[in-house]
Every structure is written in structure tokens, then in C-alpha cells.
Design a protein that fits this description.
The chain has a single domain (3-83, 97-129), classed as Trna Endonuclease, Chain: A, domain 1, CATH 3.40.1350. It is 28% helix and 30% strand. The protein is built from 3 helices and 6 strands, in the order αβββαβββα. The chain has helices at residues 3-17, 62-73, 120-129, and strands at residues 22-25, 37-41, 44-53, 78-84, 89-94, 106-112. The protein has a 6-stranded mixed β-sheet. Strand 2 (37-41) and strand 3 form a beta hairpin. It is globular. The N and C termini lie far apart (32 Å).
């Protein structure tokens, strides 16, 4: 399955299973590096980059790294939601500090994939309150 299609399906799963969050999918060819999704819930907002592949770790390009760092540096919250296909997991990484490459991301939560319905609230909690 094509990468973009997997990420679109991941976004559809987020919208369906995470309640009381306003999600906006960003499709921009004018701003290099901007994450795929902006979300707001319970008075907190965040950015979310969606990644889906068979590798062991999400990979960001240099534009994504630069954008995420600037957002974090100014007090924004940026996460990477990684669908680790080979591991059968959804992993949530947080951008913290100065990300010089993807390996500086911090794993903050992991769920089995497919995610049991009862566990989507865990992901919502990390996005809103972490």
C-alpha cells in the first residue's frame, strides 16, 4: 500500500477513535516540513506528523526536523505518530530539545496495533496533556 494511503488511513482512525479533539489535516506544498495534522482538545493544541512504514524508527526529512524544532523552541507541542508495521505497534514520539535528526525524538507512549477500542483514550491523553 502506498505511503500516503497508509497515512490517510491512520488519520481516519484517529478521527474515528479519538473523541473531543478538533483535528485538521494539513496538505501543504508551500510550507516545507509542516506536520500532517493540527489538533486541539481541552484547551490545548498540538501538531502531529503521521508516519507509517516497516522500519524500526520514524524518519523525518531535514525540513520536518527544522519545522518541528522551531515550533518546540517557541513553546509548541509536536508529536510523531508512527505506525510501526513490522512491530504491530503505534508509537507516539515527542519532539523535545534540539532535534538534529529523527533519532532525537523521545518515545512517550506505545500501543499495540490494531489498537483496542478501550485504549484510544490513552493516546488522546498523551496528545492533550503531555
Amino acid at each position: 500500500m502506498a505511503l500516503r494511503k497508509r497515512e490517510s488511513k491512520l488519520f481516519d482512525r484517529l478521527k474515528k477513535n479519538i473523541k473531543n479533539v478538533h483535528f485538521t489535516r494539513i496538505e501543504s506544498s508551500t510550507i516545507n516540513g509542516i506536520p500532517d495534522v493540527h489538533g486541539t482538545g481541552s484547551g490545548h493544541s498540538f501538531w502531529l506528523e503521521l508516519k507509517s512504514n516497516t522500519g524500526k524508527f520514524p524518519k523525518l526529512d531535514k525540513f520536518q526536523i527544522a519545522w518541528c524544532y522551531e515550533e518546540y523552541r517557541h513553546g509548541g507541542r509536536v508529536f510523531i505518530l508512527y505506525q510501526a508495521l513490522s512491530q504491530g505497534a503505534l508509537e507516539l514520539y515527542s519532539v523535545q530539545g534540539i532535534p538534529t535528526d529523527s533519532k532525537n525524538l523521545v518515545l512517550v507512549h506505545s500501543l499495540p496495533d490494531p489498537v483496542p477500542v478501550s485504549r484510544w483514550d490513552e493516546l488522546r491523553s498523551f496528545l492533550i496533556h503531555h
